[in-house]
């Protein structure tokens, strides 16, 4: 409704009129509040006693009438904070026109939409983490633990203008004062993220050591910089010529294990980059491959600590007796057995020897012998009696005219080796 303004002298009359419900002329637009919605009842804000003061609790709902809903701190503000005179039909601003009332302390350096960062409850109630997530510099690691003023040192009244995002822009003092490795002398890049993370400076976990020509592989990957480098970044050992130049740093380890052994200094020929233990040495390069049961024994079974053999070096791969002389003597001493152990034994085990009896000049697997003799003891009655066994050891031969008379046998020679010439299947 349009309300006609009246001097205070008429206030009492107006109050009586309002109280009695008598209609007030509504055809004039001379209200001090300006043009208000016609359906607005004066009693929503005023009392029947007087125009002033207005009601403590007004029934006027700002959002319903003006399109600007009061929330947060706006609810507790006095009307005069925004309405600087009696006119209530202005200012003509919307709920997002914050700059109409509030000075932009960011001086246009931030978003035009205040609500993107602020809430009506308080300007200072902002989430730095959330705001930074929308920028090219999201906060991670240790940056989440520091105050805004730690970086925005020139902040005045909440300005928080944009800053350079390069690490060195804030950490130049750290870069120049690095004690463990002199970054300036070593001409390290100022892009700190190539080596460091935002969690901590210590030990530069992101540093790609491969760019030095020596990648940190295996056990090297878990050691600290100080294990190989002095505080100024210099090496504590001679610089490796290649990735596999282990002895450059591990000369003391080599000397302690292999001094005087003649072992090569190419450690990777036997060891891995993960551990010194359980070396994977290709024994074939010595001329003696570890086959069969040899493959499962320890180095100490044949070598002293300095790598020297505990036995005479084998002449060939099958020169078993060079190392197993004691085994041979214990089993075959005085038997006349050959020292070519592989004629009967395998490289997997001594047990279950498969003797080639034909090679011993007595073919027990031919003729009637096939089923007569099954075990060694059938002929070798004494365990150590493994001498030369011939046909004549069992069969008597004479030159008389008996069944065993061979005097008329053409070309007969009285030697066991000739028996099979005539008795091939016996």
Keywords:
426 residues, little secondary structure
Provide an overview of this structure.
The protein has eight helices and no strands. The chain is mostly loops and 426 residues long. Among the domains are: 1-93, no CATH class; 96-165, no CATH class. The longest helix has 12 residues, at 247-258. The radius of gyration is 54 Å and the shape is elongated. It starts with 10 loop residues before the first helix and ends with a helix.
Q: Give the SSE string.
A: HHHHHHHH
Q: Based on DSSP secondary structure assignment, what is the total number of beta strands?
A: 0
What is the residue-averaged pLDDT? 77
Any idea what the shape is?
A: elongated
Q: Give the CA-CA distance, first to last residue.
A: 144 Å
Proportion of residues in β-strands: under 5%
Summary?
With 426 residues, the chain is low in regular secondary structure.
List the helices and strands and how they pair.
Blueprint: H1 11-20, H2 62-66, H3 128-133, H4 167-176, H5 247-258, H6 321-332, H7 369-372, H8 419-422
